[in-house]
Amino acid sequence: MINIYPRANDREAARISRRDLIGLMAVGVAHGIRNPLTVIKGYLQLQDKRAVCCSGESLAIILQELGKIEDFISDIILLAHNKTSKKSPQNLNDIVKKVYPAIQQAAAPNGIAAELVLAERLPLVNLDTAEIEQLIMHLAGNGIEAMGAGGRLTLGTAHEQQEVILYVQDEGRGIPREQKSKIFAPFFTTKATNTGLGLAVSLSILERHQGRITVLSAPGAGSIFKIRFPVGQ
């Protein structure tokens, strides 16, 4: 089944009540901030019992968890403000290749193979490099989480008529029909360790680039997120 975003009724659907929004934010903050703080607290308590300063391994984990909190706060700020993108003519392949090593590193612990399939020639597109890097990382991270252990994550580019295309394909469990209308909603998540902001931030970035996402997914058959950027805007 194919779903295309943003849709004409997305704005209206996003206008949830103040009470519902507060509830969603409370759950999101609990996942995004409390969970990393729990890990940090545990390591600090362990070091206190040993009466020694943090070891190299413990310090690395603490810094990693603090990084998660920083990323979470950045995502909330990005959603809350009408940010102006700093666009300039870019080759999408260059941006994908820049973030690819980080994606490989994120996929490797779960035995997931990351693959690049890049078009040979792409026209330049007006893009905010930092935002597109963030978009790719969110979509790739979503695919890695969907697969769990093993499988292949494919990042590719293409050129069709007046559009440059980025696609991220995973071999995960797919998206259930009843969840497809919710996946880009802020704080929506089915995972205990996920903040539910990644796809919402991705959609906000895409809207600032006058782009759209096509989602092809079925339970047990994986998912393909295909992002289309207009050429010449």
Automatic annotation (TrEMBL):
GO molecular function: ATP binding; phosphorelay sensor kinase activity
Catalysed transformations (reactions): ATP + protein L-histidine = ADP + protein N-phospho-L-histidine
InterPro entries: HATPase_C_sf (IPR036890), HATPase_dom (IPR003594), His_kinase_dom (IPR005467), HisK_dim/P_dom (IPR003661), HisK_dim/P_sf (IPR036097), Sig_transdc_His_kin-like_C (IPR004358)
Statement: the UniProt record of this protein carries the keyword Phosphoprotein: yes
EC number: 2.7.13.3
CDD domains from the UniProt entry: HisKA
This protein's UniProt keywords: ATP-binding, Kinase, Nucleotide-binding, Phosphoprotein, Transferase, Two-component regulatory system
Residues in the signal sequence: none
Positions of the Histidine kinase domain: 28-233
PANTHER family: PEROXIDE STRESS-ACTIVATED HISTIDINE KINASE MAK3, SENSOR HISTIDINE KINASE
UniProt name for this protein: histidine kinase
Originating gene: kinA
